[in-house]
Amino acid sequence: MHRAIAAIATMMFGTFAVAEGVTSYKTNDSFEDATFAVETAIVGQGLVVDYVSHVGEMLNRTGADVGSDVQLFEAADVFVFCSAVTSRSVMEADPTNIAYCPYGIFVADTGEDVLIGFRNYPEGPMQEVQLLLDGIAKEAAGQ
Q: By CB atoms within 10 Å of each CB, which of 26, 70, 110, 113 scores lowest?
């Protein structure tokens, strides 16, 4: 059912992409502009980017070492951050929600599309984080 809805949304709007457990949005921006937009949207929420993981560079650098010549991304970064307010809220509801912290938003240039997205969180208190990430990703993607 979720896939059917996502497929219809993609056909109608062309902005929503679906992978199991992931929400992502296409942007017309370049990779560089999209990464700037993500960082700006995170900081605009009063949050601090703790780390940027350059996943695309790592995969390109290590491909031959693991016996692959497939280039997965032109570029791909993951912005890692946390929210004291949101994290406290979800961990007061259930301390084991610490397992989901810190949070991450990715920007990936597949060569065809630039995607901005994040992993989905379980129902319950973690939907507060889901809403935070969705707002940041949509803002950065110009949705």
A: 70
For 49, residues 6+ apart whose C-beta sits below 8 A from its C-beta are 39, 42, 43, 79, 80, 81
Hey, what's the torsion of the CAs at 52, 82, 111, 12, to 10 degrees? -170
Rounded to whole angstroms, what are the CA distances from 120 to 60, 68, 101?
26, 29, 13
CATH of the domain at 32: 3.30.310.70
* Apex 122 CA angle, 57 and 19, nearest 5: 45
Question: Which of 112, 113, 132, 120 is CA-nearest to residue 25?
Answer: 113
Query: Which tens digit of pLDDT belongs to each residue from 17-62?
Result: 456 799 999 999 999 999 999 999 999 999 999 999 999 999 999 9
| Structural domain range at position 134 | 2-141
